[in-house]
């Protein structure tokens, strides 16, 4: 996974496992020599170091699964995939989850929180997985322009540019001026309009 869109102190080996570790104000004096990630105590650092060396001493023995994990807590969460146990419940809609992190991500649907932002277009997401998929399918450069308009044949390097271009053919103007209600193909054209009229 690319560390392009992650904060500096995120481990690049397993970044998603460290997102919850970013807590301002907590003293974390124990630093990883591989990725500079910091931890509150040495036991957490030792578990973390297993990721760098590939040491996974905890093995699932259910149904001859044999999947391996770096910590007993990760194994415990995995075992729930066999048992179907979902101990974490959303207090808004009642949906159940096997992992507290999944509940935390789910709650963002209700709160509208989207803390992960695309560096290219500014679109925000509830989790890093959706952000990385967005970047891969919309912004990764291709050696040649690989998507094209079926109406006029114009080629584009990015799907997002083709999507905007298609509005020329469909007449869609989704960006509306709140003052005069005039519609625009993209937000840039709307901003130019607003600045030129002093809206």
UniProtKB/TrEMBL annotation:
A Pfam family: zf-C2H2
Intracellular or extracellular location(s): Nucleus
Cellular component, GO, one term: nucleus
Main subcellular location: nucleus
Keywords associated with the record: DNA-binding, Metal-binding, Nucleus, Repeat, Transcription, Transcription regulation, Zinc, Zinc-finger
Chaperone among keywords: no
Gene Ontology molecular function: any one: zinc ion binding
Protein's GO biological process: positive regulation of DNA-templated transcription
InterPro entries in the cross-refs: Snail/Krueppel_Znf, Znf_C2H2_sf, Znf_C2H2_type
Domain (C2H2-type) ranges: 30-57, 58-87, 88-115, 116-144, 147-174, 175-199
The keyword rRNA processing is annotated on this UniProt entry: no
Family classification: Belongs to the krueppel C2H2-type zinc-finger protein family.
Xref: PANTHER family: AT-RICH BINDING PROTEIN-RELATED (PTHR24388:SF104), ZINC FINGER PROTEIN (PTHR24388)
Name of the protein: C2H2-type domain-containing protein
Organism: Clytia hemisphaerica
């Amino acid at each position: 996974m690319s560390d392009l869109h992650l904060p500096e102190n995120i481990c690049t080996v397993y970044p998603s496992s460290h997102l919850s570790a970013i807590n301002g104000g907590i003293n974390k004096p124990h630093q990883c020599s591989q990725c500079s990630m910091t931890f509150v105590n040495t036991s957490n650092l030792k578990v973390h170091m297993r990721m760098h060396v590939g040491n996974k001493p905890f093995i699932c023995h259910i149904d001859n699964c044999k999947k391996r994990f770096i910590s007993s807590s990760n194994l415990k969460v995995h075992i729930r995939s066999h048992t179907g146990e979902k101990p974490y419940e959303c207090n808004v809609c009642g949906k159940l989850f096997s992992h507290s992190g999944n509940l935390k991500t789910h709650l963002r649907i209700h709160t509208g929180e989207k803390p992960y932002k695309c560096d290219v277009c500014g679109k925000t997401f509830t989790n890093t997985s959706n952000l990385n998929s967005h970047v891969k399918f919309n912004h990764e450069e291709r050696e040649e322009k690989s998507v094209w308009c079926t109406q006029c044949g114009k080629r584009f390097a990015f799907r997002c540019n083709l999507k905007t271009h298609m509005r020329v053919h469909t007449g869609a103007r989704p960006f509306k001026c709140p003052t005069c209600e005039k519609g625009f193909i993209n937000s840039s054209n709307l901003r130019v309009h607003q600045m030129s009229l002093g809206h």
